[in-house]
Write a structure and sequence with these properties.
This protein has a two-stranded antiparallel ribbon with strand order 1-2. 40% of the residues lie in helices and 9% in strands. The termini are far apart. By secondary structure, the protein is mostly helical. It has one domain.
Length: 92
């Protein structure tokens, strides 16, 4: 017997606003094994996800960072490139 889904109005635990958990969304998530209703609206969920990514980057040291290199390391000569080719020749 196939389960019949109907739209549900839920309250977001973060912003306390109402949001609709549509029948099609319920069917989609149930088909992937998710049985619980969502606790957050889409915008609060996306904000939580963004904040988690940001904190993970800080903890792992990944993400954007700046570094200073000595000026000598910033300029390349043809001797620094494979096969002694100049930059213009190697770009072709």
């Amino acid at each position: 017997m196939e389960e019949k889904f109907i739209d549900k109005i839920l309250i977001c635990t973060d912003c306390k606003e109402e949001f609709v958990f549509t029948a099609s969304a319920q069917e989609y998530f149930a088909g992937r094994g998710f049985m619980d209703d969502p606790r957050r609206c889409k915008s609060c969920y996306l904000e939580l996800k963004r904040a988690k990514r940001h904190s993970e980057r800080e903890l792992t040291g990944r993400g954007h960072f700046e570094t200073e290199l000595p000026e000598a390391e910033l300029s390349l000569t043809s001797d620094d490139l494979p096969n002694g080719n100049s930059r213009e020749e190697s770009d072709l």
